[in-house]
Write a structure and sequence with these properties.
- By secondary structure, this protein is α/β, with parallel strands linked by helices.
- The protein has nine helices and nine strands.
- The strands form two sheets. It has a six-stranded mixed β-sheet with strand order 5-6-7-3-8-9, with helices on both faces. A three-stranded antiparallel β-sheet has the order 2-1-4, with helices on one face.
- Helix 4 runs antiparallel to helix 5 and helix 5 runs parallel beside helix 6.
Length: 237
Amino acid sequence: MSAAVECRAAAVGYDRQPVVTGIDLTLAPGQWLAVVGTNGSGKSTLLKTIAGLIPPINGVVGVLGCSPGDRHASVSYLSQSHEQGFLLPIRARDVVRMGRWPTRGLVRRLRADDEVLVGDAREALGIADLADAPLGTLSGGQCQRVHLAQAACRRADLLLLDEPTSGLDAASRERYLGLMDSERARGAAIVSATHDVREAQRADLVLLVAERVVACGPPAEVLTAPALAQAFGVVIS
């Protein structure tokens, strides 16, 4: 079985200017990689490269046995910024249902099994009661859960989540972590960008970055006080 993500001597950045260099890792199906660092450390740049939105500068980046972007329908990418639906009267349920578009297309009606996946994702994130609410009326945390549900109901082989816990309260964070466990259990691989060390401790692998690779490996080996001090510039307890 092909690796979900494989990087060999990879460098990522913009306009041929590297942001992070020396990335070497292999993420298997069913594993979770947390990319940890401060704002501007290169986390989002790496996710965009894996998603095929920007090319790698050097080295090799493989995604599901292909080049980034070649298997778009098998990858679900959640960026940091989302359209909040203030101009269009779009409902929360409609946003979640968009997660099925790569499978059914824009003009084909969703099938009963699609609607089951949409409903399951809403339940998992605790937004079933928000189904008919216009997106523009929701709080930031509620909107984040709606977009996480959209990413989940895609049923992709690889989930790329950029700061997925942004705006979430404690209860919503637990729902998110439970969803990550469920996604891994069905064989999906996950790459999440975060500055939250507690979230990263739940992952299988951690890539600690600070415009370079500080450390990469299991959480217990990477999330040490000396390594975190290098990445964040302060001692994190």
